[in-house]
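Why do we care about 3D structure at all? Because function follows from shape, and shape follows, mostly, from sequence. That is the central idea of this module. The next example makes it concrete: a single protein chain, its amino acid sequence, and then its structure expressed as tokens.
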Amino acid sequence: MYAVIGAGPMGLATARNLSKYDIPFIGFDLNSDVGGLWDIDNPHSTMYQSAHLISSKGMTEFSEFPMPDEVATYPHHSEMKRYFQAYARHFDLYRHYEFSTRVVRVEREGDGWQVTTERDGETQSRHFQGVLIANGTLHKPNQASLPGKFEGQLMHSCEYRDASVFDGKRVLIVGCGNSACDIAVDAVHRAASVDLSVRRGYYFLPKFIGGKPTDSIGGKIKLPRSLKQRLDARLIRLIVGKPSDYGLPEPSYRMYESHPVINSLVLHHLGHGDITPHGDIVGVVGDTVTFADGQSRVYDLVLMATGYKLDYPFIDAGELNWHNADAPQLYLNVFHPQHRNLFMMGMVEAAGLGWEGRNEQAEMVALYIKARENNHPVAEALEQKATAEAGQTLDGGFDYLKLERMAYYVHKDSYRKAVNAHIADLKQGV
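And the structure:
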């Protein structure tokens, strides 16, 4: 019996593949239903009312379970919740889960793992052959500190739910990622003023080009990496202009070396003066914030859209091969170099990977478990590779920014190629 931690998209993909290959398991989730952060009613969700998928449905959905035609190209979070619920019903996954259950501790016990859970104040400890951790990467806020004490309202984007919180207020949003830009656009319609503190440059992409979702364009012709970077950067500049045209800093890196912002509405509002850009914050006194350019502004609310940190509080970091690094050092972001029955599921980000890329990851793990049970040499071959190459990043030659959030970022094509090669090999052992 295996334990699956999490019933969000990655947890469900994991459960689906374990079920597909007749591997017994029990799933655990804090929430009362599936969907993870996509269920805004989940007390642990970081979702907000206006949130939509930032990748198109065709590039995101599970290939064996497409979204209905009537669902918009960029679905609302409520559609995503219904999608994952339908997925769980279709593949009969609900019966495997214990909901409203917290995983308190995961500890090695003999050749397996002891998993301690808590529900309704009662704890239970059980022995499992292996553990698949799929509790997500976007739930512990990165609480960046300000250079001083702000005496107005201070909140993190994880606390944001709807734009009423901005009514009549002078608002500063710190950060310029996808959530920061979404929230800034929300605030425009309710706040007295909206400012944006941006420390570094970003590439901004529209959601549509020529009526087609941007992430669906250009995949048929494979270009050399450096050429694609140059051509795509020029194309985007032709369509939306340069960030500096809107008062934002230019990126100091090449395109695709950090996750782009999929939002052209924020540029619209910057260009209309609805949002005022500023640089980094150098000082805070009372309700006054001073920026690197020497300007000072007074605010009622500062919202920190400073991202999230990996968090696995139920297991010692050392058990994850996580030592003085921004992310656990694993093979393909999944396999531990020594523990053959501990798997990190979904600790991977890549432009265009979608849920299908994560489903492939889950199938690879399920096939490995079966091959190992059968003592097939393909399992041992993968284990040797996991030991030798743990922590190596499949970056496809891209020089990704050395940021904490990029520590588990991969190049989609390189990653899927490696995963699918293992799938093909491992099927020999089933």
